[in-house]
Amino acid sequence: MNTPIPSPTSRPLPRPLTGAEPLGEIGEVAVAEALRLGAHAFISKDDLTHLVPAVERELEGVAARRKRRDAEGARRRDPAYLAAVLDEAGAAILACDDAGAVEFWNAAAERLFDGLAGDAGRRTAGDLLDRSPASLIGQGRQRAVGYRTDGATFTLEVAAREAQVEGRRVIVLTIV
To answer: Which of 62-92 are b and which e, b meaning 16 or more Cβ less than 10 Å from the residue's Cβ?
Structure first.
């Protein structure tokens, strides 16, 4: 036999009330199962006094999640955050334009190629690799020969992907 659902204040819930799931008159087992499956509260259709506070709590939760999501997005767009993440990456990362001019490199690339600092706009992928970046796009990891600033050569694995940045093509090289 179904019994009216008790008011949330008559006994403790397994988790805090943060929203509402109108369930009507159902058994306690069904209420427990609904809470287990994600319902945040239960409201008796015969006593809707708890409906407005439950909806308000859920709306506050939505606002908090939206605020957290927006803050995370802003952090990901922060240049200092991105620079720190890229500089701590274990793989060397280079970005080149269509002509192969190196526009960006991270700290791992600087170490791998024995110093790129101060060479912005003066180095090309041809100075660093035996292949053009465009020929590597979509080929997966490929073996290549790398050239250090002192002329020494070494074997590496490189993958290239294409990105669109402000309407222009950028070739991103990941080197391990």
So the answer is: eeeeeeeeeeeeeeeeeeeeeeeebeeeebb
d(CA 70, CA 83): 20
What SS3 state is found at 135?
helix
pTM above 0.85, yes or no: no
Look at residues 149, 79, 139 and name the one whose alpha carbon lies nearest to residue 109.
Answer: 149
The full length of the chain comes to 176
Residue 45 counted as domain residue = yes
**Are residues 61 and 95 both part of a single domain?**
no
Confidence of residue 72 (pLDDT cuts 50, 70, 90): confident
Where residue 118 sits, what CATH number does that domain have?
A: 3.30.450.20
